[in-house]
Write a structure and sequence with these properties.
This protein has 166 residues and is of the alpha/beta class. The protein contains six helices and five strands. It has a single domain, classed as Rossmann fold (3-Layer(aba) Sandwich), CATH 3.40.50.620. Helix content is 45%, strand content 17%. The chain is globular and about 50 Å long. Bound molecules: 4'-phosphopantetheine.
Length: 166
Amino acid sequence: MKIAVCPGSFDPVTYGHLDIITRACDIFDRVYVAVLTNPAKEALFTPDERVEMLSKATKHLDIVTCEHFDGLVVDYAKLRGAIAIVRGLRAVTDFEVELKMASMNHHLDKDVETVFMMTSNEYSFISSSAVKEVASLGGDVTAWVPSCVAEALAKKYSHARKAGIS
Ligand code: PNS
């Protein structure tokens, strides 16, 4: 049984993330999608909200489980018996950050391998932060995120606008 972890902030999940999760399902027997904390990013959605959106977006993939974990990705991988951490690479700009992260994780636990997949061309420019920027300014994001996510973004930003938060 080959188990993989797809970790990320998923704030919120995009079609780019779903592309990687779906392709991981073709290689591994079981895939755990973990909402983890990236200390460099301030989240818009709570971990529970992010897990809920991920679970809805992956409900057709029966080997996928989505959950939140508060801690190191290598500890989560060990907890779930995973042999690999799967990450998507969009462009060269991702490389440096991902190399550092993979090296750090390798140092922390040599039994877990980081596996990189190149994001499919049509999703190479999508990021959660770009999606949030467009949605916050009232733009249409339905080409980049599932409908439940587009609705959640519209709700968050309409509340923010009503409360006078920019
Ligand atoms: O979607 P992101 O923000 O690129 O994902 C980054 C994430 C959450 C996978 C990374 O920040 C992470 O692994 N956080 C958990 C803490 C950890 O294990 N840090 C060590 C790796 S540098």
